[in-house]
Amino acid sequence: MAFRQQSVGISGVEYNTNEHDPRISQDIKDDNVDHHEMEGLRSFAQDTTLHGARFLFADNACRRLLWTLATISCLTYCGYQVFTCLMQFNKRPFNTKITTHLSTDSSELLFPAVTLCNLNGMNTRRYKQLVSQFYSEERIERKIKDISLMLSRSNEILSEEFKQRNPEYFRRPKKANYTNEAQGAVGHQIEEMLLPSTSQFNSCSIDGMQCSANNFTGYLTPMFGKCFTFNSAKGADNPPLQATLAGENSGLKLRLNIERESYVANPLRPFVGLAILIHDQKSFPSVEDFGIKIQPGVSTLIAIKRRKIINLKEPYATNCTDRTLDVFNSDKHSNYTKAACLMKCRNDHTIKACGCSPAKFKAKSSVPICAPNDTILCVYRSQEEFGASAEKNKCEKDCPEPCYHTKYKTSFSYSGLQREPLIEHLMSLLNDTDEKLSVNRAIYEPLLNMTKSEKEKYIDDNIISLDIYFEDLSFDIIEQTPLYETWALIGNLGGTFGLFLGMSCLTILEFLDFVFRKIFYLLRGQRKARTVNAEY
Known about the structure:
By secondary structure, the protein is α+β, with helices and mostly antiparallel strands. The protein is 40% helix and 20% strand. The strands form three sheets. Strands 3, 5, 6, 9, 12, 13 and 14 form a seven-stranded mixed sheet that branches. Strands 7-8-4-10-11 form a five-stranded antiparallel sheet. A two-stranded antiparallel ribbon has the order 1-2. A hairpin with a 2-residue loop joins strand 5 (204-206) and strand 6.
């Protein structure tokens, strides 16, 4: 049988092949496939979209060197930019954006809660009234002096004579309610602190409407005794008040009597006046730590502006939290605050140091309530030491800022008081026999026997005028926003690689495709080599 021959020429050399020979045809096909799959780096550089890559294999040596240096320089700079961008991204920087919103809806601008405490924790006038049926006048005066000794942390209170004379100061109560009732009974009362009102004189008003002691909620503090919060919004029937007007003629106006002559001598805290705190209804009023002190004999005006603060969560530096904190023996303060968290840490430190807990804090049933001597001799000292302790530093880390909270910016101004109108008001009540005009004669009756100068001194020493109002009907939102997010990182890197190397995501895919094809070819070549060896 005859076969038709075909001549194939490659590089000037002729080979005779038989197109009917299946083995020869298959070898030619395999050679063509292998030739296609064995793409070299030079060939890839000619096809890739990476700018300048095709010149790395130029025929001219100087040109190759120039383009190699240029490509390496661009790659080095891009690598530096990648490192810089990643380091900056890892820092998680953020912007603080402040925007001012005008309140068009009264529900948007709530009037804050206002907490006030008399700087004197025990009213000696009330104390005498409460214990007069149990002790003689001389014994009562002795007990008041003993209380002053405790407040001054005198060494005399450690004597057995003092303990025998005042056993109640060393007895730990079994229930917090007992301590609260006893401490609250001898503290200053808001109905007595407010000056008596008439149709022409309001000692408490909000936006021109009369208010009274019923609009205040009492709670206890170890340092100031009984404190009172206006507009606490405690209970469903007592919603928070809305601000409808701005300016000095609106807002809360209080006229108060601090009863300076009923103060207990306290050489460690020889202060006279009120501590006040303006805060959100759901935040615990940390008056002992952040209260503002105001003095009698002057008119204090406080302009406020509401601020809503929005912080960022982890991984940003603020690392804010939305958690709740159940710390106090009260159901009206539910929001987490950094201050409340630190107070819990401080109370835990107090429990370790003193073996008891102040009555206002929730504690395990096994932890007793602190007695008065515990509070004076141990609690105060442990709280002072807490500030310099290692626990404080740990608590600072464990107590992040809340993600959402409200604060009030305050601006103060002062003016003198007109004594004559106040003296006339009080004297008219004392001289009036109308039973409808109620006045606590135990407080104000000494005015009847005073001279004019003594009455003026009484006003200067006891009366406080306090006005709190919104400076305008707008509120600020202070919000942290990410400065360098993931898409910004991708955009920066993409811009750098695109500008210096002309790269895109598809360029990266080209390199990956080339690498995978190379790996595939090497693996297939090894498999074919093993097959050939097995045949021979």
